[in-house]
Write a structure and sequence with these properties.
By secondary structure, the chain is mostly helical. It has helices spanning 3-22, 33-48, 60-78, 85-96, 105-119, 124-134, 138-157, 174-183, 192-203, and strands spanning 168-169, 172-173. This is dUTP diphosphatase.
Length: 206
């Protein structure tokens, strides 16, 4: 298995674990992951800028965060309970190796959204096209995904559901602490997710 496919397989495992934590029988619920994808695409377009009647500067960092969120939904859409994560990862990697791009990022994003609306599907090739045009590679995706997924677990473990979770620590939001932790670690470390969690734990008020 290639390095990229291995990273995708790890993300698939993490996504299944997160979905199961939220709802044990998530397979049977028929959640509309495709709808979450196109709604996120629309929100992302606002961060990127599309209004020709006013000056807008793309908020690249926010766009990357939104792409990471879309990948969460895309993976959820692909997990079927039958196909192994290794096989799914190989399929997704193959599709991402042939990126579909429009004339600019906005058009590529519309291709991704159109597949979600019309086919109720995750278009990994269009997603890869968006990644390329925003200057994002598989390591950026992996770093962002594992970080956000681990933070979601951390929130759940520290009272997110019952409202006791503290979102701002030492004057910074948990997302900012996450960025600092992730930047200090090696994404190729097999215990990357565990180390991210430990880093958050060390910073969180006891």
């Amino acid at each position: 298995m290639s390095s990229a496919a291995n990273k995708i397989a790890i993300m698939l495992e993490m996504q299944h674990a997160m979905n199961t934590k939220v709802h044990e029988q998530w397979f049977e619920q028929g959640f509309e992951w495709y709808r979450a994808i196109w709604v996120e695409c629309a929100e992302m377009l606002d961060h990127y800028g599309w209004k020709w009647w006013k000056k807008q500067t793309p908020d690249t960092e926010q766009v990357i965060l939104e792409l990471v969120d879309i990948f969460h939904f895309g993976l959820s859409l692909r997990i079927d309970g039958h196909t192994s994560f290794a096989e799914l990862a190989a399929q997704i990697e193959q599709e991402m190796q042939s990126p579909i791009q429009g004339a600019d990022f906005k058009v590529s994003l519309e291709t991704l959204a159109a597949s979600a609306v019309a086919d109720k599907a995750f278009n990994a090739a269009a997603f890869a096209g968006c990644m390329q045009q925003i200057g994002m590679n598989i390591d950026d995706l992996y770093r962002g995904y594992v970080g956000k997924n681990t933070l979601n677990f951390f929130r759940q473990d520290h009272g997110y559901k019952d409202g006791t979770y503290i979102k701002v620590w030492h004057g910074q939001e948990d997302n900012e602490h996450l960025v600092a932790v992730v930047k200090s670690l090696d994404t190729d470390n097999p215990d990357f997710a565990k180390l991210v969690y430990q880093g958050l734990q060390q910073r969180y008020p006891s």
